[in-house]
Amino acid sequence: MFNNVGISGLIIILAIALIVFGPAKLPQLGRAFGDTLREFRNSTKGIADDEPEVKSNIIELEQTKN
User: Fold this and answer.
1) Residue 26: closest CA among 37, 40, 16, 36
2) What share of the chain is helix, strand, coil (3-state, %, to 5)?
3) pLDDT tens digits, residue range 16-41?
């Protein structure tokens, strides 16, 4: 989706954000975005860590069923 956004596109997006939100609000928005991204990564990591446990439980259930 964002494969075609280059440096000039990022500069334009940053300039528009600066105009819309103002210089005082940008650090707060960046911090909130970073916190949200960090929480998303932590939750997806937790799901990925649980996956092998779930697979082993399924295998055990299949073995006891047979």
Assistant:
1) 16
2) 85, 0, 15
3) 988 998 888 888 988 998 999 899 88
CA distance 15 to 46: 36
Q: How far apart are CA 61 and CA 23, in angstroms?
A: 58
Question: What pTM was estimated for this model as a whole?
Answer: 0.50
Nearest-5° Cα angle at 28, 30 to 38: 45
What interhelical angle do 7-21 and 26-65 show, nearest 10? 110
Asked if 66 contacts 58 with a C-beta cutoff of 8 angstroms, the reply is no
Spacing of C-alpha 15 from chain mean position: 24
Is the pLDDT higher at 13 or at 5?
A: 13
